[in-house]
Design goal:
- The complex is a heterotrimer of chains A (253), B (329) and C (288).
- Chain A has 253 residues and is α/β, with parallel strands linked by helices.
- Chain A has ten helices and nine strands.
- In chain A, strands 5-6-7-3-8-9 form a six-stranded mixed beta sheet, sandwiched between helices. A three-stranded antiparallel beta sheet of chain A has the order 2-1-4.
- In chain A, α2 packs across α3.
- Chain A is globular and about 55 Å long.
- The N and C termini of chain A lie far apart (43 Å).
- In chain B, α5 packs across α12.
- Chain B starts with 18 loop residues before the first helix and ends in an 8-residue tail after the last helix.
- Chain C starts with 18 loop residues before the first helix and ends with a helix.
- The radius of gyration of chain C is 22 Å and the shape is elongated.
- Chain C has eleven helices and no strands.
- The chains are: A alpha/beta (253), B mainly alpha (329), C mainly alpha (288).
- At the B-C interface, α1, α7, α8, α10 and α11 of B face α4, α5, α7, α9 and α11 of C.
């Protein structure tokens, strides 16, 4: 896995305007085509780290130290797919707009490419005939559109900020499968942020555990899960609910 | 009182389905009925005898009795009410002018065009200026420009609209001579030129509220995930600002204008007086000095009806324009 | 995206304001207090500060420009403008405060009832509110003030009729969200009477915000008083009032523009002071 990294984050520190430190001195690097998981509870600074990599920190947050180095472009998939789309703009138009500016093609060609992308992501054909707004699509469909938007940028790194948390459990699986198959096909690297250890373990070869803005532990997924060194990691592992039958058997002893 | 009343009554318009439209229409109808009743009672709940006001303090009992009869005030209250409603529904009128003898409705309709034109120009001016200022403030948040624009509403809140008009006359008509001091000019350009200052005055009273809300709205939109998505996708920020952010901030502002339409009309009536424009406002003041009750009632009725209908239209338009209300296919 | 962030948030329960330090740390409140205090002090002590009488005419010294004897000049009847300006503050501010008392009380009460009980009480109050709001504020003020007779009486009647709506609307929203809180529901099931919940628990919760609204509303009321004066159906001359002063000065706009301009600035000054007071109070109550 040790090829030349596509992304290097070096002692990145982010602070609020009030000088409160939100992300403290974190470092990691990402190889081409690799998947890296950032896990931790909400408010631990995972999403801010992604925004820093993207280069678009929210208002009131500043980078006070460290550096983010990357040779390729990155694109992001958000937690709330509806919020990530302009509610007043038809989805096809939004996608075509990104294709138009990013891939330097004509408006007409951009629309064709946009429709192809949507089809590839398994969205229904009805989008082609009539303008559909984000509010008229389901959460899972919106998330596919958001992924299409990200792919339209032809990213070297895909940043995923809890892309399944806001979705139904059945849809979560489909979205994860879509992302993995696209990754195999297109070969982008991925930083996957989640608080769901199970998903992270399935997707990522390496895990970084974050707590209160700091990385408390990191390592290869399997060894980290089998031999967690930090009590917080242990707690995260314990918080993954076993299936109910197993629990019942366990309580009967 | 201007700013504190600006609750968005139409905010519930987003939760979908045509049921909302029906409820809005029924509500407006009920309010219209209440408005009519209120106009009837308007001169009856305040102390004082309308007949005495018309004839003056030292009128004879005989004359008072006659006046009571002319006004129909000698009838029992419920009968007066039925008569009032009957004229209202059959003729859309509130009776004949005591002074002119002609229908109050006709008098109002004669004066309405210039007032409506003034309101229209003021609205357009207010919206354009508010959009520019709010965009400037939101994109320069916490910089000097933003602070200046934010102080603006606090200062203008206490500015009497007629006084603003007088200062504008002083500056642009007396000192610079750009506009006429008062009255309405001849022809199309003459009318526009003479309505420019009054329209600016009316717009001026609306701009602070609009800017404040639009700025807050734009800041919220600028922070939303979809703007980050668009930015990250490499769309130029000018396109994001004008195509996406402005559109998303415009709807709530349109609603706000609907809520404020009542102030706009009220302000226009006063401003007409400052600039000597012969519109509804000047009709109101002549009728007041002539104690011409049917005409005063008519003005109150038509103003309130316009407010209800315009706000309803704006609510419906925003609902129509917002795809979020359409629900799933 | 559909909701505007409210300028003021619901304070989380009753808090003691710990005195001067709090005020000192809130610049807007401090400036507001100072500005307002200056005005009040001037208004209180004007008889000792000025050698002139507000209504005494001096026809040999009319329309004088500002000088060392007449700080702001004199009007068309030779009365000292500065003296009249401050006496007018007495008139206008007194009416402003008195006219707010009844609307404030009824508005807060009706708002609480409407928000807390909901259902029919709420619908009826909402309907009355919607009806009143349809009438342009100035139109109703002008008509009622005129019909009930020009002068102070008309102003009081007008504001008793329409002034409560602002408070009712704000308090209604607050009360409705208050009712949603869990402990209120549990208090109700335990059989605590509604009147007790409203007076002991709801009132202290809604009062701070109502007071903040009161500050901005007073600005609107002042502007309305002045407007009525300007239109000649407010305070009758020769009692000094900013509105009549502006209208008296209007014919001399080309020669003595300050006659109209200065009283307007006095209104704007008061408006800024009250706005700052309101903002400052909101800030204090918002902080924990």
């Amino acid at each position: 896995m040790s090829t030349e990294p596509v992304l290097e984050v070096e002692s990145l520190t982010l602070a609020a305007k009030s000088k409160e430190i939100l992300v403290n001195n974190i470092s990691f690097s990402l190889a081409r085509g690799e998947s890296l998981g950032l896990v931790g509870e909400s408010g631990s600074g995972k999403s801010l780290t992604l925004r820093a990599i993207l280069g678009l920190l929210p208002r009131g947050v500043e980078q006070t130290g460290g550096a983010v180095r990357s040779k390729v472009s990155s694109a992001m998939v958000f937690q709330d797919p509806r919020g990530a789309l302009d509610p007043l703009c038809p989805v096809v138009k939004q996608l075509a707009e990104v294709v138009y500016y990013r891939q330097q093609v004509s408006r007409r060609a951009a629309r064709t490419i946009a429709l192809e992308l949507l089809e590839r992501l398994g969205l229904p054909d009805s989008l082609r005939k009539k303008d559909r707004y984000p509010s008229q699509l389901s959460g899972g469909q919106c998330q596919r559109v958001v992924i299409a938007l990200a792919l339209a940028c032809k990213p070297g790194i895909l940043l995923c900020d809890e892309p399944t948390t806001a979705l139904d459990v059945t849809v979560q699986r489909q979205i994860i499968d879509t992302i993995t198959s696209l990754q195999h096909e297109l070969g982008f690297a991925m930083v996957f942020v989640t608080h769901n250890l199970a998903i992270a373990a399935n997707l990522c070869s390496r895990l970084y555990v974050m707590k209160q803005g700091q990385i408390v532990e990191h390592g290869e997924t399997l060894s980290l899960l089998q031999h967690p060194a930090d009590p917080y990691t242990q707690m995260l592992i314990d918080s993954v609910l076993p299936l109910p039958e197993l629990e019942l058997e366990g309580s009967r002893q | 009182m201007m700013n504190s009343r600006r609750t968005l009554t139409g905010a519930q318009g987003n939760n979908g389905s045509y049921k909302w439209l029906g409820i809005a229409l029924v509500r407006a109808l009920i309010v219209i009925l209440c408005v009519m009743t209120a106009v009837f009672f308007l001169i009856r709940i305040v102390p004082g005898d309308p007949a005495k006001m018309i004839l003056g303090e030292y009128s004879t009992p005989e004359a008072l009795k006659n006046m009571h009869h002319t006004l129909g005030l000698d009838l029992p209250l419920w009968e007066q009410f039925i008569r009032f409603m009957k004229t209202l529904f059959t003729q859309g009128d509130t009776g004949n002018s005591i002074i002119m003898g002609t229908s109050a409705r006709e008098l109002i309709m004669q004066r309405a065009p210039v007032t409506l034109l003034l309101i229209l120009i003021a609205c357009v001016l207010a919206i354009i200026t508010a959009l520019l200022l709010a965009t400037a403030a939101a994109t320069h948040k916490d910089k000097l420009l933003d602070h200046l624009i934010r102080i603006f509403p606090a200062i203008t809140l206490g500015m009497p609209i007629f006084w603003v008009g007088i200062l504008l006359i002083l500056l642009f008509s007396v000192r610079l001579g750009w506009f006429p001091v008062g009255g309405v000019g001849e022809g199309f350009t003459g009318t526009l030129r003479s309505l420019a200052l009054p329209a600016i005055t009316v717009a001026f009273s609306q701009i602070p509220t609009l800017v404040r809300s639009l700025r807050a709205q734009m800041l919220e939109v600028l922070e939303s995930d979809f703007v980050v998505t668009l930015r990250a996708s490499g769309i130029p920020s000018r396109v994001i600002l004008f195509k996406h952010v402005l559109r998303n901030s415009a709807l709530p502002t349109l609603m706000l204008l609907g809520v404020n339409i009542s102030y706009l009309i009220g302000g226009t009536l006063v401003v007409e007086q400052v600039f000597g424009i012969k519109g509804i406002g000047s009709l109101l003041f002549t009728s007041i000095s002539n104690r011409d009750f049917p005409v005063i009632q008519g003005i109150a009725l038509y103003c309130a009806l316009s407010v209800v209908i315009i706000s309803l239209l704006i609510e419906i338009i925003s609902w129509w324009l917002d795809p979020r209300t359409k629900g799933k296919q | 995206m559909t909701t505007t962030t409210p300028d003021i948030q619901l304070p989380e329960g009753k808090k003691q304001v710990n005195g001067l330090r709090r005020i000192w740390n809130t610049p807007s409140l401090l400036i507001g207090i100072i500005m307002f205090a200056v005005l009040i002090l001037l208004a209180l002590f004007i008889p000792y500060l000025s050698p002139y009488h507000p209504t005494e005419q001096n026809l040999s010294a009319f329309l004088q420009p500002p000088s060392s004897t007449h700080w702001l000049g004199t009007d068309q009847l030779g009365r000292d403008l500065f003296t009249r300006l401050i006496y007018a503050a007495r008139t206008d501010l007194t009416i402003m405060v008195l006219a707010e008392i009844i609307p404030f009380c009824t508005g807060v009460l009706l708002g609480m009832l409407s928000g807390y009980y909901g259902k029919w009480t709420d619908r009826i109050i909402a309907l009355i509110t919607d009806t009143f709001i349809a009438f342009p504020f100035y139109l109703i003020v002008i008509i009622v003030a005129f019909a009930s007779g020009a002068g102070e009486r008309g102003i009081y009647i007008t504001f008793i009729l329409v002034g409560w709506i602002v408070f009712a609307r704000v308090v209604r929203g607050l009360s409705a969200s208050f009712r949603e809180q869990e402990w209120v529901a549990s208090a109700q099931t335990l059989g605590l009477p509604g009147s007790r919940i409203i007076l002991r628990h709801l009132l202290p919760n809604v009062l701070p915000q109502a007071v903040v609204v009161l500050m901005t509303d007073m600005v609107g009321l002042l502007v309305a008083i002045v407007t009525l004066g300007y239109l000649g159906i407010g305070i009758a001359p020769p009692t000094p009032d900013w509105g009549t002063m502006i209208s008296d000065g209007q014919p001399f706009i080309t020669t003595a523009w300050w006659l109209s301009a200065v009283p307007g600035f006095a209104v704007v000054y008061t408006g800024i002071a009250l706005s700052l007071l309101g903002d400052g109070l909101a800030d204090i109550w918002r902080k924990k």
